[in-house]
Recover the amino acids of this structure.
């Protein structure tokens, strides 16, 4: 019996080794016949995620890409991020390839590590299906025609926010206050939540969620990723409570005319888990990206007084043409041309989303290399935003870049492009412009930490929250 057992184990080992040799032979042969992008996968499991995260924490996420484009290829290189083998696409031609190829040879993809933080476990819904559903629902609310009636609402909320959170103080920290404003606005639009206590309850866990989205995905107590996963569960419990409450209200015919994203999804008879996943994603996007953009606009206006002066003059012309207490409207927003040029230059230097993930639907070629079906893809805004080929003297702050016809196609991509351009682009633009109108006509300000550093997580943020001193404007 013992001899038979040893023979069995011997044959099993021979089979295992044989299969391994055959696999390695085929892998080696295929890697020779397919011209894969050059690069380095880094360490097992974590790949090069740690290097990417550390560069982001130093406020220099483009260094990760620049080092590798210099070493391997200026068009595309191979790496491993968030536990996934990945091809990183670089430059305007790469953006054009990806944006025009969406739904042809590439499709939406979210890293499993992010899905674990943000979504209920679901074996029935792929990233492609989730993205498609989101893009059916959101345009009803986020296209400019639908948003125009909200301009007076955004204006009123901005005025109230500045009056209660800024005016009583000589010094404030900008970043947390702006997050409070943008998230409160999102609560109003997405779920008609206006009570400050309800908004505060939803806000609390989101910082931990955001912190873990781009982190080494090690889910053990004490890590950033673990805290984000736990906070994601809290967020989903809160959102599910909102859905249940609104569903009961509709059944009882309470506020039947109230319309927001959540109510629309309930009218579409979507599953509660589906609604929860999508609302969670909307809240995350609302929480960090626009607040980051507004914060860095305020930072930049403090650093460049001549730019502040031009923005101020443009906004004062609009204000002086209004009657006492008259809210902003769409015609006013269309006049904010230089203000938007200034915001665009900030979005170029500090993009609130530095890139996005995709997946190859089929084999395709780019830059002389083959991208195999199933490979994950990452495109990065900094490969054009800070490239002197597209933006001369790229570190210089110059809003005039966006006057006239503006930069070449596929070079300015803070909102992506093609069919998968961020559906919230117009919503973000209205928030930024309305808030900037109100703050520059109410205050001048100075930075209290002249050389304050900033870091990136999902979006850039000042490490000390951008403290400023305020000087009220007498009008």
């Amino acid at each position: 019996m013992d001899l038979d057992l040893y023979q069995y184990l011997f044959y099993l080992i021979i089979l295992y080794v044989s299969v391994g040799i055959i696999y390695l032979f085929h892998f080696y042969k295929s890697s020779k016949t397919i011209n894969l992008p050059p690069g380095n996968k880094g360490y097992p499991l974590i790949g090069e995620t740690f290097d990417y995260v550390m560069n982001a924490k130093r406020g220099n996420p483009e260094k990760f890409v620049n080092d590798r484009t210099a070493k391997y290829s200026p068009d595309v290189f191979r790496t491993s991020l968030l536990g996934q083998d990945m091809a990183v696409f670089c430059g305007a031609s790469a953006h054009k390839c990806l944006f025009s190829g969406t739904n042809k040879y590439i499709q939406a993809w979210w890293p499993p590590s992010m899905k674990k933080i943000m979504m209920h476990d679901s074996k029935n819904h792929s990233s492609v299906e989730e993205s498609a559903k989101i893009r059916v629902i959101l345009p009803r609310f986020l296209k400019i025609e639908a948003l125009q009636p909200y301009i007076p609402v955004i204006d009123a909320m901005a005025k109230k926010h500045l009056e209660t959170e800024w005016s009583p103080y000589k010094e404030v920290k900008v970043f947390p206050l702006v997050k409070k404003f943008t998230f409160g606005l999102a609560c109003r639009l997405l779920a008609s939540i206006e009570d400050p206590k309800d908004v505060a309850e939803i806000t609390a866990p989101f910082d931990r969620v955001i912190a873990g989205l781009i982190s080494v995905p090690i889910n053990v107590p004490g890590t950033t990723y673990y805290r984000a996963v736990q906070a994601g569960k809290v967020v989903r419990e809160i959102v599910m409570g909102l859905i249940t409450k609104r569903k009961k209200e509709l059944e009882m015919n309470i506020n039947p005319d109230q319309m927001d994203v959540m109510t629309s999804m309930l009218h579409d008879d979507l599953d509660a888990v589906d609604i929860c996943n999508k609302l969670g994603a909307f809240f995350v996007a609302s929480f960090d990206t626009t607040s980051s953009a507004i914060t860095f606009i305020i930072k930049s206006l403090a650093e460049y007084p001549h730019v502040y002066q031009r923005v101020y003059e443009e906004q004062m012309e609009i204000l002086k043409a209004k009657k006492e207490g008259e809210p902003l409207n769409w015609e006013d927003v269309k006049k904010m041309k230089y203000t938007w040029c200034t915001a665009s230059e900030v979005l170029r230097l500090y993009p609130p989303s530095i890139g996005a993930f995709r997946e190859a639907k089929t084999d395709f070629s780019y830059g002389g290399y083959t991208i195999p079906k199933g490979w994950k893809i990452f495109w990065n805004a900094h490969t054009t935003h800070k490239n002197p080929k597209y933006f001369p003297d790229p570190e210089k702050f110059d809003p005039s870049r966006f006057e006239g016809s503006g930069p070449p196609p596929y070079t300015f991509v803070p909102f992506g492009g093609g069919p998968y351009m961020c559906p919230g682009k117009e919503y973000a633009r209205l928030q930024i412009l309305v808030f900037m109108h109100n703050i520059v006509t109410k205050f001048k300000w100075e930075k209290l930490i002249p050389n304050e550093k900033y870091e990136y997580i999902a979006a850039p943020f000042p490490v000390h929250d951008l403290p400023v001193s305020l000087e009220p404007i007498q009008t």
About this structure: Residues 17 and 23 are 10 Å apart (CA to CA). The chain has a mean pLDDT of 86. The longest strand covers residues 76-81. DSSP finds 20 helices and twelve strands in the chain.
